[in-house]
Amino acid sequence: MLDIGGDNLFVLEFGDILHYYTPYTATLFLVALIFTGLVIASRPEKQVDIAFGGDAYYAKETTLSEMRFRRFMAIACGLATMGAMGSGDLFNFTLFASLVGIANIGIVAAVKSRHVLDAAYEYGIVAMVATLPLFGGAALILATTGTLSIPALAAGGFAVPLVGKAFLALGVIGEGMAPFYAAKAEMFRAPGAPYVIMCSLSSLLIFLRVVEIVITI
Amino acid sequence: MLIITRISRILSNFQNLVALFAGACIIVSLIGILSLPLVFEGNQLYPKSQLDPASGLYPYNRGGVPFGTTEVICQYPENSPYAGYVTTYLTPLSLYLAENTLYLGTTIVAHPGGIIDEILYNTRGADTVVETSILFTAFAIASYLYRRREGE
């Protein structure tokens, strides 16, 4: 076992499903927690476009109902990210990762802007398809080792197949679009700053977490 | 043109995203096929040995006595002193469907109360909570988008 997370600080038990916090995952958890707090407390930005060379400008209005829905989705995304950070069970982690993916789509789904929705549509297709490698990876690991618990797998004695880990990483890449932000950058052009940044932050955090899982097990 | 410029130009167009991801999936799947055979571990923590096709709850019927103790393997026995396979907590409609038809197991999300009638291992309760949250998040998005037209 290659221990990159450090010793357990705290273990939360739900039957066979453990949530454990090492210095590494606790840091990621705190980042998600702080940002969720910011999302709850802050008001959305108001974008203003200025016509160059003149006095004309136009402000983009975000309606109240749209703002409330997007804040709700951003909070759901933050909670899912926090869950994924601490989860000590592979299947539970994949569930949280897909919840992050669907909440990301929800954050931008309310925007009435053509290019944003185009990008969100492409991202949505990838996020849907990515559940296949995500859950397939967890299923492969369960079938070849007989257990799903990350601490048990990390303790050694199991031959975790490399392709299972690769599928898991691929699934998270698809859910969060983690290294390729092409569609996300397009989605960020949606007005309403703190909420759209939640998309980016959550995918970064679940990617960092899956790297830890893949190295540990 | 530099090769990195060319690659970043392809990556920056989100229309190529699905094709790129599909390509990555194909490559990893090919590696997976080449690494076959993977050995199935016989000593499973969650075995599927009690399947009974004649049951209305197939394939989710776990048996066991609600609130009772049934012998079951678990990862952390100290966390679940009363662990067991449990099929329990059906709403009256679900109970009726389970007793009279063979299809409740496959329509678990397709009838009222079905989502909360999830039948799982006692030891994996958090799974049920997260699965239900995913479904409710999806329903929330769909209902918001559907009802948005009313405000216009």
Instruction: Write down the Rg of chain A.
Output: 19 Å
Spell out the helices and strands of chain B N to C: HHHH
Global Rg of chain B: 23 Å
Overall morphology of chain A: elongated
Q: How far apart are the termini of chain B? A: 49 Å
Structural class of chain B: mainly alpha
How is the main sheet of chain A built?
2 strands, antiparallel
Q: Can you count the helices of chain A?
A: 8
Strand content of chain A: 5-15%
Question: How is the main sheet of chain B built?
Answer: none
Overall tally of domains of chain A: 1
Number of helices of chain B: 4
Number of strands of chain B: 0
Helix content, binned percent of chain B? 25-40%
The number of E-state strands of chain A comes to 4
Uncertain residue ranges of chain B = none
Ends distance of chain A? 7 Å
Describe this structure in words.
The complex is a heterodimer of chains A (217) and B (152). Chain A is mostly helical. Chain A contains 8 helices and 4 strands, in the order E-E-H-E-E-H-H-H-H-H-H-H. In chain A, strands 1-2 form a two-stranded antiparallel sheet. Classes of the chains: A mainly alpha (217), B mainly alpha (152). At the A-B interface, helix 2, helix 3, helix 4, helix 6 and helix 7 of A face helix 2 and helix 4 of B.
Tags for this model:
heterodimer, A: 217 residues, mainly alpha, two-stranded antiparallel ribbon, 8 helices, elongated, B: 152 residues, 2 domains, 0% strand
Helices and strands in order:
The complex is a heterodimer of chains A (217) and B (152).
Chain A: E1 10-14, E2 17-21, H1 23-41, E3 48-50, E4 57-59, H2 64-86, H3 90-109, H4 114-145, H5 150-154, H6 162-176, H7 182-187, H8 193-216
Helix pairs in contact in A: 1-2, 1-8, 2-3, 2-8, 3-4, 3-6, 3-8, 4-6, 6-8
Chain B: H1 3-12, H2 17-34, H3 92-100, H4 125-147
